[in-house]
Amino acid sequence: MAEASRNEKYTGPYAAQQERYDRLFGGARAKARDFSEATGNPADLPEDLVRSRETVPGGWAHALPLARGETLRALNTHGTPGVSLLFYNAKDRSERFNAGDTVKIQWNARLARGRVLFSDMGRVLASITDDSFGHNDALTGGSTPASNEERYGDATLRNTRDNFILLASKNGLDKRDVAPCLTLFAPVGVDGEGRFIWEGEGPAPGDYVDLRAELDLLVFVSNAPHPFAPGDYAPRDIDLIVWTSPPPAADDFCRTATEEAVRGFENNARYLAALGEE
Asked: What are the backbone dihedrals phi and psi of residue 165, each rounded to the nearest 5 degrees, phi first?
């Protein structure tokens, strides 16, 4: 569903549902804070803040731990159209990223700066604290052998589904644990017929997204093009930078952007208190 502007009343086919949502939740969606502008953080982070740097070649994948309070910067060094991620609670890997709830709870399918990533337990796994591109897809999922066959005529090309299954097998999981993913740098929209489409030019070299861990995480990253990405199959290197970000303030924009996010962090607080990690 295409999102109406903040000052325009939605009149599309789901207008009745939106009116009911706003009535039940007191217009929380309309009151959501606007964080569409990137913060202007420098692309070059001070080395004393950086814990690790990894380069993931085009088509390949990588798994990495991310401690609570650390930030993962996905740096799209060459403008690759799509980088897919999965997130697991490192202390209980049965808890993982829930794409459907992340979109539904925040009433927003175009995930960008200021939004958070919910788990299937109603907790916040990560926050999007900065985003120079501003359009990340949690609706259509990553590439598969079937999508590569349809798009490029070659099912043997490396793809996100197989990449995630391989990473799962190396980390005590299996293909049943591979849930729908988040794909960064993927401007997916919906046309008038309700079909998913690729909008615009895609990312430019140097675009980046910062994801701050709100729990200890295991993160899977697949550097394979989005299934709707235009052009030939030509994924290029991306860089993953893990750095120590500042502790969030009481009015942190991700934690206070919506009432739903506030409740998610309340769930985090109860969980961490039970673990003795307040």
From this structure: -65, -40
Q: For 80-124, give the DSSP string.
A: -S-EEEEEEETT-TT-BB-HHHHHHHHT-SEE-TT-EEEBTTS-E
Q: What are 207-239's pLDDT values in tens digits?
A: 999 999 999 999 999 999 999 999 999 999 999
With beta carbons less than 8 A apart as the criterion, state whether 238 and 55 touch.
Answer: yes
Per-residue pLDDT tens over the stretch 90-105: 999 999 999 999 999 9
DSSP state, residue 206: T
**Dihedral (Cα; 63, 67, 70, 72), 10-degree rounding:** 10
Q: Which residues of 247-273 are buried (b: 16+ CB within 10 A; e: fewer)?
A: ebeeebbbbbbbebbeebbeebeebee
Pairing of strands 182-184, 188-190: unpaired
The pairing of strands 207-213 and 70-76 is: antiparallel
Residue 191: CB partners within 8 Å, gap ≥ 6?
197
